[in-house]
Amino acid sequence: MIEAIGAAGTGQSWDATRRWVEQSMGAGATVEGAVALRGGWTSEMRRLRIGGERPRSVVLRSFVKEFYVRHAPGLLGREAGVLTLLARTPVPAAELIAVDPAGAHCDHPSLLMSLLPGDVRIDDAGAAGRAPLLARQLLDIHRVAAGPGERPRTYEAWTAPDRVRVPEATRRPELWRRAIEVIRRQPPAYRPVFLHRDFHPGNVLFTGAGAEARVSGVVDWVETSWGPADLDVAHCSTNLALLHGVPAGLAFAERYTEAGGRLASDPDDRLYWRLLDALAFAPDAEKVAVPWRALGRDDLTPELVGRRLEEYVQAVLDQDRQTLPAHGDRPLPTRPSC
Q: What is the pLDDT of residue 18?
């Protein structure tokens, strides 16, 4: 018997979803097995084994939590459009097979896509060697060309000065107030690029080991946006700080510019983007650690990730803000963010 798909723990049937998958895969296709994929937080992910004339494995994303079901038409519709666009680029993204963004045919809103090779790697071992690979992959994403009719939505900030919730257990409330004041301004002007918007090690697949390690896939394109490269770099930096420690987070911007990326030339602007992202993790970074623990990082306790977040905010504020080396082959024109 195949386990329920997209409804883990709900007891709901997935018969409609199975029929939709089989119809989407073509005549004679049957769902012969399903395996839950770990590490997701917003949706249920399953690897499906498809039988028939063309046996293969595919991936099904289903939104089952009430909040995400409500927003599924926009989220899954956006991901479907992005996967279609990326199919003509070198970015290693999945192939879109079918999408039911409103759950008109499935038990839950769902998207069906090809299975990418590789696995998620979030262990401390090898993290320093993977960072340059992450940076180069992020730069390739930022170089995706999208015409005016293809561009994703303008980025949305995930926090604001009056929405930041200071951790109750902090012994340094003044630190948080200082950080909040940094983002109490109009967003800096920026050169807009194609953003993944949730780029971090949990959404990147690798093959090979050691010096042979390579990025084999980038997943989770529901938040794709049009905005400043600084914001994607900041988000990956915060995640690296929580996963591997503050130095790993601080170093990622340099890995990005070494790869040829270009960030804001004004140190105050760079500081704004880094703190705008980091403060969105407050008051607790626990929710991002939950899927990481499911992938084996049991050391990432709520206390540890909370301490690392606070230490990272302190380090970003205290870091010597010298202008990063200029890289890339284009000048940095700016335009307002709105």
A: 95
